[in-house]
TrEMBL record:
InterPro entries: ARFGAP/RecO (IPR037278), DNA_rep/recomb_RecO_N (IPR022572), NA-bd_OB-fold (IPR012340), RecO (IPR003717), RecO_C (IPR042242). It comes from Saccharomonospora cyanea NA-134. Involved in DNA repair and RecF pathway recombination. PANTHER family: DNA REPAIR PROTEIN RECO. Belongs to the RecO family. This is DNA repair protein RecO. One of its GO terms (biological process) is DNA recombination. Pfam families: RecO_C, RecO_N. The gene is recO. Signal peptide: none annotated.
Length: 283
């Protein structure tokens, strides 16, 4: 049995059996870790409350046969309390946690940059100084940059020509110049590109000076861009095979803990079979 410590953010929790939970953490040094917290659903649990979603905690774990086991928890930042009491902050934090979870397909692989982005975004939501939807969109843009999917904003996605350009196409990677423009592109207002760029680069003075209509358009583009890339990732073979391999192992631990995982697996397999049925070229 080997012990280790790390600092992490709670991304999600699943019930396990009568009294336990599986906690998904995004940690500073070990990347995504799924670990068992024993007895946390009993009201007498010492650390159950510290392992709620969005908690920033220092944990001690020991390496288990299938999942690691959490033996100690200390709160680093109590982000959860101010976040869960406010609907807008809560929905933004939930989207941040889900995106971080989906962007880390491999457990145990260090993803320091993403961890820092999650902690920064949750801290901003907890403090409540910034607009929650701007915090969310900034996080989504930067986490997509981390994944290598940042949209081209100030240059053409195809040829690199400096813009700003009028056309924007998610499948093509973002802004497109007049020569590279493809059918089906949208034409966002110039202010939309300005706000996208400000959020990607952390220019909060510019971001907070934007008007509601522009923020709405930016949120729509960011969500569509993320959705498109996540669906592409879901179709990738290694990811699907890993999920399929993992499901039976988790199954033996407790029935109510696995519904989310099973859903992802079958959805991914569904996508694959649809693809092969249509002989997709795999864009
Ligand atoms: Zn071009």
């Amino acid at each position: 049995m080997s012990l280790y410590r790390d600092t992490g953010v709670v991304l999600r929790v699943h019930k396990l059996g009568e009294a336990d939970r599986i906690i998904t953490l995004l940690t500073r040094r070990h990347g995504k870790v799924r670990a068992v917290a024993k007895g946390v659903r009993r009201t007498t649990s010492r650390f159950g409350a510290r392992l709620e979603p969005f908690g920033h905690v220092d944990v001690q774990l020991y390496t288990g046969r299938t999942l690691d086991v959490i033996t100690q928890v200390e709160t680093v930042d109590a982000f959860a309390l101010p976040i869960v009491g406010d609907y807008q902050r809560y929905t933004a934090a939930s989207a941040i946690a889900e995106t971080a979870d989906r962007l880390t397909a491999e457990e145990g692989e260090p993803v320091l940059k993403l961890y820092l982005l999650v902690v920064g975004a949750l801290r901003a939501l907890a403090e409540g100084q910034r607009d929650a939807s701007l915090v969310l969109d900034a996080f989504l843009l930067r986490s997509m940059a981390f994944a290598g999917w940042a949209p081209a904003i100030t240059e053409c996605a195809r040829c690199g020509r400096r813009g700003p350009h009028a056309a924007f196409n998610i499948q093509a990677g973002g802004s497109l110049c007049a020569q590279c423009r493809v059918p089906g592109s949208v034409h966002p207002a110039p202010e939309v590109l300005v706000l996208l760029d400000a959020l990607l680069h952390g220019d909060w003075d510019t971001a907070e000076g934007s008007v509601q209509g522009v923020r709405r358009d930016v949120s729509g583009l960011v969500a569509a861009h993320l959705q498109w890339h996540l669906e592409r990732q879901l179709r990738s073979l290694p990811f699907v095979e890993r999920r399929a391999r993992e499901a039976p192992i988790v199954d033996t631990l407790g029935s109510d803990s696995v519904s989310g995982e099973t859903e992802v697996t079958s959805a991914a397999q569904g996508t694959r079979s649809r693809e092969s049925a249509h002989g997709a070229t795999g864009a």
